[in-house]
Amino acid sequence: MSQTNFDVAALRSFVTGMDLGSFAKAADRVGRSTSAVSAQIRKLEEQVGAPLFRKAGRGLGLTDAGEVMLRYARRLVELNDEAIVAARGTDLEGWVRLGLQEDFGESLLPGVLGRFARAHPKVRIEARVARNADLTSRLDAGELDLALVWDDLDLSMHARRAAGLSVELAKPAIHWIGSDELQWTAESGEPLPLVLFDGACMVCSLATDALDRAGIAWRVALTSPSLAGLWAAAAAGLGVTVRSPFGLPSTVRTLDPQTYGLPTLPTLGLSLVRASNVATPPVDLLATIVMDAVRGYASPPLTPASPAQSHLPHRARAYA
């Protein structure tokens, strides 16, 4: 029996289309025509022997086979890229100092650093997981080469972007976070109990400002120096905290603002920032890996089909 061999280029188009929420955008990203990407998707379905897409409301979603295929496609594409980088960069040496938000310390950091370390064993990495203010100050002091940070609310991030030092990777909404143990309701007449970081916190300030504008009373029920402390307190029902949806543990969930009578919170940009325009090859390579990982982690929702997408295979049109 002949062995089926997947085409890495087709897998890359599949993964890119899912990450971008559009196979038309994926075609631009991978440097192919939309008809060529359409043919790749059809060939993948033929090789799998099952449809990858199913109807989901007005658009389409992945079938069980599609979900499985996407997971393996990511791994195969990453392994392909890792092999190429490793073979070409066996002599790469140096030092990279990376800073990350706590939100990504457990969910993103191990995979990113593991992938980089396997490809470049001679490069030393120093990683720091900290809050936004600490990371930006260390960037300014030259103590970090790269940092994944939330866009601040003043002009400094605009200045970094204008200088070519910052690239926005995602703009997720900030959510109210709690658990089924929460006893507070808007009808109780009690101030909303908040679980917040101790000290200055930009995300926490967004939430309290929104509550003040909405005329909703609040109180600080618990402060913690760590994100794990916030999750534990919210899971126990001590109060509500605020965060992006990245890295949420199973013990907490995002709360519907309308259900709880809370204001909708804004989006907040997430950027990868360099300390200097003068970057070494190790810094450039790690920056690329971090950007790819975050963009895949923060994939946008897929959009429904439109008449302009009719050139794509029927089951892929919802993603164009």
TrEMBL record:
Gene Ontology MF term list: DNA binding; DNA-binding transcription factor activity
Keyword flag Transcription regulation: yes
Gene3D superfamilies on file: Periplasmic binding protein-like II, Winged helix-like DNA-binding domain superfamily/Winged helix DNA-binding domain
TM region positions: none
Pfam families reported for this sequence: HTH_1, LysR_substrate
InterPro entries: LTTR, LysR_HTH_N, LysR_subst-bd, WH-like_DNA-bd_sf, WH_DNA-bd_sf
Superkingdom, natural source: Bacteria
Domain HTH lysR-type: 6-63
Alphabetic keyword roster: DNA-binding, Transcription, Transcription regulation
Family in the record: Belongs to the LysR transcriptional regulatory family.
Name the record gives this protein: LysR family transcriptional regulator
Lineage, top ranks: Bacteria, Pseudomonadati, Pseudomonadota, Betaproteobacteria, Burkholderiales
